[in-house]
Design goal:
heterodimer; A: alpha/beta; Beta Polymerase, domain 2; five-stranded mixed beta sheet; two-stranded parallel ribbon; 4 helices; B: alpha/beta; Rossmann fold; four-stranded parallel beta sheet; 5 helices; 37% helix; 11% strand; globular
């Protein structure tokens, strides 16, 4: 399947869930509804699309400008050697999405990282704890609302140096 | 100058001479400055020429702590523990811009200089510092060791 056929096939398969499509340097980009993330990615994982690998899951904070967080999923098909980027917007006030644990095992830690950095809840996640920051850390440091340069030391620091 | 003073001055000088040329260092390496540490420590630049060639991989056997690379708040208690485990007399070199001042990072994660956690004797700036700068820093430390008040194990501490 070439890029055009691929996008058409995905569109007809996912139907209403696809809000927009684009092309980024030869790779397809899909914008889908947040409530369709789990069924859409479950469908893309299987034949004929066969996106067997979840390369990355990250998030972008547009809270100040547009009041939303954008989840970005990167998929890769080993059999066809093509990539696919999927974006879904969640409201900044209460960001939440369905978990992908059960489809891809690595989604567990990727979702824990996004939860840690952005505070997005992944419903159905078996163990949604912080991944990178430490116990006692307050807030989500990659949110634009996190105070600039705010440090949260674990041990007393000398200030008079 | 009394005879006793002359004796202790000579003894201090001898202790300093011995200590500055037998630095056992513990490399606490967290980041890319480690590459510069490796080239400094290996044959081409060779810190063994200055008596600091013997790398120890336990802080209890070391008397020079080389903090090489970025120290985050998550890691800060570990660095403090390593420093506390070292026996006196001990010295610390902050190797590279990150351990000197936080370097290019000023955010939620990075400690703005390891001197906020432990005392530092010599600062080596640079991102990363060239091996020549590291050797210069080592010579500065040796000079400091030679001329400091020597800590006698058998003397009562005040």
């Amino acid at each position: 399947m070439g890029p055009e056929n691929l996008i058409d096939a995905i569109r007809s398969s996912l139907g209403e869930a696809v809000l927009d499509v684009a092309d980024s340097f030869g790779d397809a980009v899909l914008v889908i509804r947040a409530d369709a993330v789990r069924p859409a990615l479950a469908a893309l994982r299987e034949a004929p699309f066969d996106y067997a690998l979840l390369l990355d899951l990250t998030c972008v904070d547009f809270a100040a400008a547009e009041g939303r967080f954008e989840l970005v999923y990167h998929l890769y098909s080993l059999s066809r050697n093509v990539r696919l980027r999927i974006k879904a917007s969640v409201p900044a006030g209460d960001p939440a999405a369905a978990t992908l644990v059960g489809l891809w095992k690595n989604a567990e830690w990727l979702e824990r990282e996004v939860y840690d950095m952005f505070g997005v809840r992944f419903e159905g996640h078996p163990d949604l704890r912080r991944l990178l920051t430490y116990e006692g850390f307050e807030g989500h440091p990659l949110r634009k609302s996190y105070p600039w340069r705010l440090e949260q030391p674990r041990i007393p620091l000398k200030d008079d140096v | 100058m009394s005879g006793f003073d002359l004796l202790t001055t000579r003894l201090e000088s001898a202790l300093g001479w011995g200590r500055k040329f037998s630095l056992f260092h513990y490399p606490f390496i967290t980041a890319c400055c480690g590459m510069e540490y490796m080239s400094t420590a290996c044959a081409h630049f060779d810190i063994d020429r200055f008596g600091a060639g013997l790398t120890r991989f336990s802080p209890r056997q070391a008397d020079l702590l080389l903090v090489v690379g970025t120290i985050t708040h998550k890691l800060a208690p570990v660095l403090k523990t390593v420093y506390d485990q070292m026996l006196e007399p001990k010295w610390v070199i902050a190797f590279g811009a990150c351990s000197v001042s936080g370097g290019i990072y000023q955010n939620y994660a990075v400690v703005q200089g390891i001197d906020r956690i432990i005392p530092v004797d010599v600062y080596i700036p640079g991102c990363p510092p060239r091996p020549e700068m590291v050797l210069d820093g080592l010579l500065k430390l040796q000079d400091k060791i030679q001329h400091q008040k020597q800590d006698w194990r058998w003397a009562r501490k005040t």
